[in-house]
Amino acid sequence: MALVPMKLILDEANKGGYGVGAFNVNNMEQLQAICDAAAETSSPVIIQVSRNALQYADKGLLAAMVRYMAEEKYPHIPMSLHLDHGPDIETIKECVALGFTSVMIDGSLDYSTKDEKGSHPVRSFDDNVAITKEAVEIAHAAGVTVEGEIGTLGGIEDDTVAGGVHLTEPDEAEEFVKQTGIDALAIAIGTSHGAYKFPVGTEAKLALDIVDDVHSRCPDIGLVMHGSSSVPAHMVEEVNKYGGKVPNAVGIPTNMIQDAIGRGMRKVNIDTDGRLAITAAIRKVFVENPADFDGRKYLGPARDAVRTWIIEEMKAFGTAGHADDYKPVTLDDMKKLYAAG
Ligand SMILES: [Zn+2]
């Protein structure tokens, strides 16, 4: 089937009470691994690309590959193509034109400038509302889903550097949804981007009561958690065992993500784990078979490692088995629904 609006996937997950992984891609092998895992577990899936990934892989190339997977290879699997951390209106327009079925406008930070510490400054509530509203107008006119963000995350993802961490205020979240007309909302509950989410020796902690509160105020909004990699110990050990240097990496335990899903979280963003899986597999081949110089000999095992791990995630989030639950909705259908208000 054609790529579906992300709103469809999140609405269905809301009805079914499960979560859906949103996995970042930069190349063919990652995309194959994600789609193979979705097909094997019969899961709907969100494939997301960051602004930097669009540059790395060429504008349009990733979109064309994702469309091929949805339309030709796995036409029975609902898939969405989502822009992760859209920094400005220009990028939103580009992605809508490229056939993305969902975009995030990250109005929580001002990406056009950096402060003296090298961080993007936090936008005011009103400025966040203004840019998010503009993105909603553009995207909804094409039937495309919009994710906004309120509050800021810690950590580093690409060059997304938060100028301070502010957990989401439920009052503000409710008002933000009302004023912007977004479909999905990223909330800050203590997760952060990257492989070092909590200081060494401390316990992982999330403000899960914020999920309860925002979900009860905005029950139809697809809630999103960013920075949700588990950073599995076996992956980190493997990376370090074969010459890597990723000491003291700590992620979000899977049972905490499951707890968040139980409280209404619907989209679970994961990037770091995929990077670790790939790096561990490639390092292993390089150490064990130093004579190999055929890229397929190490990219193949990397792809297998990502697929194996995503299958586990799809089962853990409750996504597995839900691919055939519902009828696809097209961007045109959504366009009419949005126009009708
Ligand atoms: Zn993020």
From TrEMBL:
Annotated dihydroxyacetone phosphate binding sites: G194, G227, S228, S229, N269, I270, D271, T272
Cofactor(s) in the UniProt record: Zn(2+)
Keyword Metal-binding attributed: yes
Catalytic center residues: D84
Catalysed reactions, as listed in the record: beta-D-fructose 1,6-bisphosphate = D-glyceraldehyde 3-phosphate + dihydroxyacetone phosphate
A biological process term (GO) from this entry: glycolytic process
GO molecular-function terms, A-Z: fructose-bisphosphate aldolase activity; zinc ion binding
Listed pathway(s): Carbohydrate degradation; glycolysis; D-glyceraldehyde 3-phosphate and glycerone phosphate from D-glucose: step 4/4
InterPro entries: Aldolase_TIM, Class_II_FBP_aldolase, FBA_II
Keywords (A to Z) from UniProt: Glycolysis, Lyase, Metal-binding, Zinc
Cofactor note as given: Binds 2 Zn(2+) ions per subunit. One is catalytic and the other provides a structural contribution.
UniProt keyword Metal-binding, yes or no: yes
Pfam families, per the entry: F_bP_aldolase
Positions of Zn(2+) 2 binding: D106, E149
E.C. numbers: 4.1.2.13
Residue sites binding Zn(2+) 1 per the record: H85, H193, H226
Summary of the function given for this chain in its UniProt record: Catalyzes the aldol condensation of dihydroxyacetone phosphate (DHAP or glycerone-phosphate) with glyceraldehyde 3-phosphate (G3P) to form fructose 1,6-bisphosphate (FBP) in gluconeogenesis and the reverse reaction in glycolysis.
Family classification: Belongs to the class II fructose-bisphosphate aldolase family.
Protein name, UniProt field: fructose-bisphosphate aldolase
Species of the source: Candidatus Scalindua arabica
